[in-house]
Amino acid sequence: MAAPAAHEQRPMSSAASIASQTARHDEHDIEDDRTIVATSRPATRPQSLHQVSPEKINGSKPPPDSELTDQTNFLPARQVITVYLGLCTALACSFIEQTIVATCLPRISSDLQSGSESSWVATAYLLTSLAFTPLYGRWSDIFGRKIVLLVALVVFFIFSLACALSKTMIQLIVFRALQGIGGGAIITVVLIIVSDIVSLKDRGKYQGINEAIAAVSNGVGPILGGVFSQYTTWRWAFWLNLPLAGIAILVCLWLLPLKKVHGDMKSKLLKIDYVGSGLTILSSILLLIALTWGGVTYSWTSAPVLVPLFLGVATLAVFILWEARYAKIPIVPVHIFRYRTVNGVYISTLLNGMTFFAVLYYIPQFLQLVHGDSPMRSSLLLLPFLCPIALVVAIGGQITARTGSYRPMVILGYTLWTVGQGLQTMINQHSSTAMIVGPLLLSGCASGLTFQTSLIACQAAVPRRDMAVVTGVRMFVRLFGSTITLAICATIINNTLRAALQTLSLSADQISAILNDPTIINAGSYYTSTITLSDADRSAIITGYSKGFRRVFYFTVAYTAVATLAALFLIQHHDLKRPDDDELKKAAEDLLKQKKLSKRGTGVRDSDLEEGKHVSTKRVVVDAEKVGDGQGVATPASPALSDSSTAAGSERPKKSLSDAEEGMVIQN
């Protein structure tokens, strides 16, 4: 890349300005990602458009990511609300599915007679969500946000139906894994779409709405799971997805007016990093299989654990090498890890996912197996943890939007979460309801402070062109933490319980029956067709479970403590007000007005404007004041140019760096 021209006292031309910004690609924050737009303020002089090659702009061959369409599309408030109808419906589907099986697991284990594999019902969903999540950010860059979201919803719908019809535990686990491919994409792409249509400073309150929906959906999920398990059948946990996903598909088809992505299907398919995609999926699955089997199904020193663990690490190393040196359009550009704040967010988010899902999945099991509560009551007792999240993230989003500050809330959130998890280690089979609810309430409020603020932090730290990628990787990191924590917790609890059972006078078959069907020890259910337990045996088993859950909570204290340190020393403050935000908002409003005018016969096809084609070889001057008024009028530079008067203002009132790389720039 050629060095930028030396700074002069006179204003730089647009081409020189863009070259200077491009050369500063790896410098701090977002200075290299300012989108150049045609200003519509009356006080400014008219802008002109002309054809310039990318080589003249950059002084070299354009970077690979210049082949991707900038999908930033800030919308007016009324349009944002309309789009949110579709996004919220889609988001609710995926978040309900994350938690609805938490209170169903004991009943699923009993019905399918496979308790030792029951953790895979949750793990399989998270595993595939995790393995594919890094791909969604880049795929949405290539194919467009809307098409990726709709495909994800269709996949989610089909395999929700398959889960509901499962006859064996193996079938259920396989279909849950395939369902997770769609479920993970829904969350990631929705977060990216919100970032496309809302400015960084205003994003806090809208992402807060997303997190509130997530919290409410997570809260409704266990309640529904408890109701279905106790009064009907756990299969309704999957039947429920069919109408919700169906509605989401229809709403998204009609209410997501997103930007068109340039290129035909063949060119888009050629942009996919197939090698990187395969490597990330393979490495994720191998690592998580090893971590899930270790200490539960097989010994940590056994071949079924060591072989996938070794292969997973080796594949991950090859993936990193490929992405850094050979990938044309990498799935995970390694330069994003140069940002200190991004690294801090990823570390804390990993531990956030580990803590959140440990509480979400193992508090209901603690309440049912140790406290003797029903599935319904155990799900209701999760509400003190989940409901405050909805309120706190909404308040935190408003604070972020008004103050432009997020760092204090992240640090405070993880600090309070550490305290809450510390209090949680004190509960046992004799604890009162108040003693259980108190730590959950504090932890819920604390976690609410960390969700949307950490997302804003990593997006603020990088240029706009990296926004989709860092968002996708953040979701990958959180799901990775969620998945490995379920494996770790299952290992701790099963090993602790197995040790407690060895002290009792039980046969191997009886021990296996207890591990496969935890509901045997529920209060009022001392006898089953396979085993009879005395009061003393039952008490010893409950004590073993209680000890195992306490050890799990010790781990969550360590997770949140390390997350607090990462937030304190790595996450930095970044300005949420980008230089071009106001102009992009104005451009979006003008775009809506000009689309209406273009349909009245302006002489320029919408497809030409959307694809950025040069509609005139001569110079066109935009009447900025009239464009600002939404009239979409262009003033010719000379009388001979009247035939191109609609070219400048009909469809694309803003120009970005990506537009320039395609051959169209704004000249000062």
From TrEMBL:
Question: How is this protein situated with respect to the membrane?
Answer: Multi-pass membrane protein
Domain of life of the organism in this record?
Answer: Eukaryota
Q: Which InterPro entries match?
A: MFS (IPR011701), MFS_dom (IPR020846), MFS_trans_sf (IPR036259)
Chain ranges of the Major facilitator superfamily (MFS) profile domain: 83-575
Q: Keywords, A to Z?
A: Membrane, Transmembrane, Transmembrane helix, Transport
Bias (Basic and acidic residues) ranges: 23-35
Family matches, as SUPFAM superfamilies? MFS general substrate transporter
Under CDD domains, the record lists: MFS_Azr1_MDR_like (cd17502)
**Chain residue ranges for the region called Disordered:** 1-69, 624-668
Transmembrane helix as a keyword of this entry, yes or no, is: yes
Q: Which GO terms describe its cellular component?
A: endomembrane system; plasma membrane
Localization, UniProt: Endomembrane system
Biased region (Polar residues) positions are: 11-22, 37-51
Q: Does the keyword Flavoprotein apply?
A: no
Q: Where are the transmembrane segments?
A: 81-100, 149-174, 180-200, 237-258, 279-300, 306-324, 345-364, 376-397, 439-463, 475-493, 552-571
In alphabetical order, the GO MF annotations are:
transmembrane transporter activity
Task: State the name under which the record lists this protein.
Answer: MFS general substrate transporter
Species of the source: Heliocybe sulcata
Upper lineage: Eukaryota, Fungi, Dikarya, Basidiomycota, Agaricomycotina
